[in-house]
Amino acid sequence: MNDSAIFQGLARAMSAGTPPAAWPMAFWKNCFFDCPVEVASHLQRFAGRQMQDQVQLFSELSKEENMANAFTKEAAFLQQSALAWSSEMLEVAELVQAKLLSSTQTAAPPEGPASTH
């Protein structure tokens, strides 16, 4: 979640326990606030890891004496990165699906001890 005070305040205001009858409001909240914030946060973490890996590779390549090996290592990294982005987009799609479907689900009745008569 974003550390901004504005986002935290909005999150507190919007998550006061939406009753099941008000699911359109919960859907709106998920669609226009929760889901975009979650997706942006997820992509930021992924892009940060990818950039960190690229910088580490550049550091290793600066010590490489053979340019052919350096190009081969960079090409391998770019191929791995493309595959990682592909799988990341699938994860984002699953995240969006879960977020949007969760707002349409009615709250399950609380499960208590079964009474026997």
What can you see in these coordinates?
This protein is mainly alpha-helical and 117 residues long. The protein is built from three helices and no strands. The radius of gyration is 22 Å and the shape is elongated.
What can be said about this structure in brief?
With 117 residues, the chain is mainly alpha-helical. It is 75% helix and 0% strand. It has helices spanning 5-14, 23-62, 67-104.
Q: Helicity level, as a percent range?
A: over 70%
How many E-type strands?
A: 0
Mean pLDDT equals 79
Detail the poorly predicted runs.
none
Helix count, DSSP H or I runs of 4 or more residues:
3
Broad shape = elongated
| End-to-end CA span | 48 Å
- Range of strand content: under 5%
Radius of gyration: 22 Å
Largest sheet: none
Structural classification: mainly alpha
Query: Helix and strand succession?
Result: HHH
Task: Chart the SSEs and their pairings.
Elements lengths: L4 H10 L8 H40 L4 H38 L13
Helix pairs in contact: 2-3
Structure characteristics:
117 residues, mainly alpha
